[in-house]
Amino acid sequence: MVIERTPLEDELGDVLDKALQHAGLTATSLAERAQVNLSKIRDAIDYRYDLNGGELSRLSRVLGLNEVGFCALAGGNYPLPEILGLPFCLFPLRMPHGIGVANAYVVADCSKQTGLLFDAGSTPAALRRVWPTRIRQIEAAFITHPETEHMGGLSEVREFFGAPPVFAPRGGQVAGATAVSDGTILEFSGFSVEVLATPGHVEAHNSYVVRSRTAASGPGLLLSGDLFFAGSIGGAFFCREKLKSSLRRLFNRLPPETVVAPGHGPLTTVGHELRYNPFVAF
Length: 282
Ligand SMILES: [Fe+2]
Known about the structure:
Layout: H1 12-23, H2 27-34, H3 38-45, H4 53-63, H5 67-74, E1 89-97, E2 100-108, E3 114-118, H6 124-130, E4 137-142, H7 148-151, H8 154-160, E5 166-169, E6 178-180, E7 185-188, E8 191-197, E9 206-212, E10 221-225, E11 228-229, E12 232-233, H9 240-253, E13 259-262, E14 268-269, H10 270-276
Parallel strand pairs: 3-4, 4-5, 5-6, 10-13
Antiparallel strand pairs: 1-2, 2-3, 7-8, 8-9, 9-10, 11-12, 13-14
The structure holds fe (ii) ion.
């Protein structure tokens, strides 16, 4: 399996913008508190960067961000971990959507042609273009949250694979899907999938933890949807407080070696994001 180094979902400007909202501050009040020129902050939010180390440090402190990760992001060198030891094959499916890229994933026993699908990409055509040739059947599909970029290819999956069961968050109104609630554990051949309700980005949002039922060791895999990414978090379109408490809950309960497959950007691990993610400074 090859895991490519895909770009981060968010850069410094996005992180500053989200951090301002979470801190309940305006750019003006941040400038006063952090003693940083207001125009420099506004420029940074517009992706024009001219902030020095001292200014970045003060901004991260006022915004309650992880300073190491925030400064690394500002320097364009946010670290990413090696992804090692997963006891199954993981196929990241990266599909263009607007100006960005949305991820879906297939998880499969490396000796089999059947897998589980997590999210369904932006469009049927996009999903077809990146589909792993080895995977001939889907045992079930899971939707993290009902946004087009994450379920636009679902009709294709249903048509092509003989309507496998689809599981989606409660309240997500995904036609034909079974709503699954927090704490549910579903068993498949070789895998268990634990459902964790993680509202915040949107109200109906699930994350899923996949574990091997046959391997004696190896980390689990968290499909985090748009709750968080390597180096950032999803926009809190539903509720900032709920997003924070969903994050806190996941990071408190999952072991650090857990591999994270987010809805955008590269793979990471729970331990790595605990160490560097600007927003995971609990
Ligand atoms: Fe998304």
